[in-house]
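Troubleshooting: if your tokenizer reports a length mismatch, compare against these two reference records.
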Amino acid sequence: MRLFDNVVSLFDPAALSHPYVPAAVLAFVVGLLAIGFVGRLERTSQTRSYLLYAIVHTIGTGAVFGEMVVAVPALKQLFGLTTYVFSTCLGSVALLYFAMVYCDRTDLLARRSVQAVLAGTPLVLLSAALVNQSVHVIAGPSRLVASGPLEVYGAATRPGGYLLGLYVVALSVYSMWPLVDYYRGQSGTLLRQGRILVAGFVPALALMGVGIFDLHPFPHIPIETWGFSAGVPFVLWGLFGYGVFGTVPVAHRRVVEGLDDGVAVTDPDGVVLDVNERLSRLLGVDPDDAVGDPATAVFEETPLAHAPPVAGRPDEDVRVEVDGETRRFHVSQSSLTDGRDIRVGTATVYSDVTERRQRERELERQNERLDQFADNLAHDLRTPLATARMYASELECKHDDPDAAQVATSLDRMDTMIENMLTQAREGATVTDPEPVALADIARDAWDRLDTEQAHLEVQGERTVDGDPSRLRRLFENAYRNAIEHAGPDTSVTVEVTEEGFTVADDGPGIPESERARVFDSGYTTRPANTGFGLSIIAALARAHDWRAAVGESDAGGVAVRIITDAQATLEEGAVVAD
């Protein structure tokens, strides 16, 4: 009971009848709501900068309420100091920082003058307060003064105080400039976003001027701290109505201006938010005229009239007449969502793929010619080979000649070599229609297709690459066969998937470093019974994907066949890359 009485004695009963106390409570609660709502959004530089701005002002607002309701002078002084530090020293700086981050004005943030303002303003204001303790140029001596039915600490404002007040107001007004500069000339959703944000700062600036220059009935209560809370309803309106933290200027600018392809950004209603210069030249329209109009109307009577950026269109190639030439464009879309996964717009990208498609068709023709050549070569070789095998078989049956059996074995080996050469030629054809392939899954699938009862496989890591699933499966199969043939049927094979590619390693005897330079040569083998095409086929399959194949030593001392999918990757010492 005594503890309760002690706690109650800290509060001033007169505060209950002061007209500003309900306003202080409301301002503090609204600040907490802003922190709560924005804090639940996806963490971006924009939401983080707004949270900083909200937290600074909410602490200052809470401190004003605390100074009004407590009865202990020391606590009143502490709350008053907290208000000065957070609302006066940090508030305007936090607002300026938020405005620049929200509009992606990194060019301004990089300026030394702006950095000096951001870092120097709090230091100057704090230093001025310390100097004022001995030389009262900002305000007179601080003392308890009556403010309606309660007492707060106050002091008479001196000329220096008004100058500092003007500086803080001017800095806050300047903070609106990045927003106004960006949103002027916009239309549609972006224009509505801008109006809401700017409207939210107007009451904040108005209360700041009223409070700093004591233009209200209780001048010793710093109501300027409530300005932030007065603007919160506008921010929440923009958040839930127009995706203020969804299609923000930074995302909008980087999507539209950061690509060499043509880009159109539309809102959920199909209204054009922006088109970049590349697309505006293709359409033959002025970007300023396009923004704010329905996409179907903007694209009508243009070369892309049959492919407007309406939401939900499939990814496809379209033909477009450009300067009397038929060009092919690939049209793709991405939904723009806010932190709550609510769609706030659509980005449609028009990529000129004319040359790429021409190269793909040429590669397909080359692959077809290569297949035809390989088939003809195999047919021309196998016809006399079949005749030779028939004579060798007759010779072996009629005369039981041991040399005939050796000839038959050599002919069988030749047939296997022809098959391997045919495989190598076909597998080396460039992959023209890749698709996403999970390396770990394809590695296990290839293992399951082989007779590997005594051997052991371990797959480490996971990654998806663009490739031909059937050829990747054969690549792994050849790597496994190579490991089992050279390391033994009970070998342990490890597949390690990394960001740079993947490695198939065994624990066998390995390949001497002096021999590694030849391992990718067609027909090279250390065992007479083998054909020597395993690693060369692996290299051909890698080249078909525009990758590199290399051979080195595994951690267990065996062979490590490495497929490098990253052109910038580096190789370990002693590894040999296929030509």
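Reference record two:
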Amino acid sequence: MRIASPYCKAATVLLTLLAILFLVWLSPYRGRTCRDANVFQYHNMNKVDGTAAGHFNHEHVLILTPFKEAAHHIESYLINVNKLTYPHHLISLGFLVSDSRDNTVQFLQDHARWFMKTQQTDWERFRSVSIMQKDFAFELSNEDRHSFQVQIKRRVTMSKSRNYLLTSTLRPEHAWVLWLDGDVIEYPETLLEDLIGMGKDIIVPNCWWHSYDDEGGYDRNNWRETPESLEMQKRLGVNDVLVEGYNDHQTHRRLLLDMRYENETSLYHAVELDGVGGTCTLVRAQVHREGAVFPTFPFKHQLETEGLAKMAKSLGYGVWGLPNYIRWRKLGRGKGNQDSEWAE
């Protein structure tokens, strides 16, 4: 009988092992195990309901901000967000940077890393920071930024930006979404508790601008329809778009700016609205999940955030404003919001 040499046995074992490794490499399940939590996940969405007691119920909040040419805003933005008293381990931050040549992405990455490294306790550290980049090849010059038609194109691009950001960052655990512009410079540290505590589907504070010796209303996209505005819309074509802030395109709506201290001085006095802006807007996450997003096409004559409000109301949700709860925006090119970009 012929006995195989030790070398032959070793070669056979080696070839067998190589064959097994090759088959494992070919398998679509390579690298996965039944213990891998990233493969098998279960989420009970029946329990992800934003409530007025969000703080006490440990509800997660997603703060979203689109940036464009905004490197000079990033440090102050993060300093202000870091002052929020809502538990930071329940807050996720999401950013989308588009069409920027001022190194916004790098500034954002550097500052975000620094904040995450220096916040040592679980309470102080944000749950996550997500930075997206998506360019839309949209440029707005100083000469045409006041043009009505250019503003419509700009709002379409902003709708795309917000939709990309929302769909890329909204997670099953999020109960609330706060849309916060990068150039909102002053707001209470209790902003999240205050807005969530109102228990509304969509709610906006009143946004004003100020300088060292002057102040005025800023966000004209927070408004309520009137009998005159509804009658005027009957004469519009289905694809006609309405934009606030143009004297030659009067909409006859009632602005939240004009309701400040009107018959009521309470900080938490709420009024029903039909349109909202995006400078500081809290949305119950369920509203987004059920289909209210930022239309890139005319929806009841509105685009972007105002279109979001119209969609939400069509779905049966409420839209509210706080005329006496003021947050301040940095004074930029103008004293109205029709000529500002993302957060420039």
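Descriptive notes for reference record two:
- The longest strand covers residues 319-330.
- The two ends are 87 Å apart (CA to CA).
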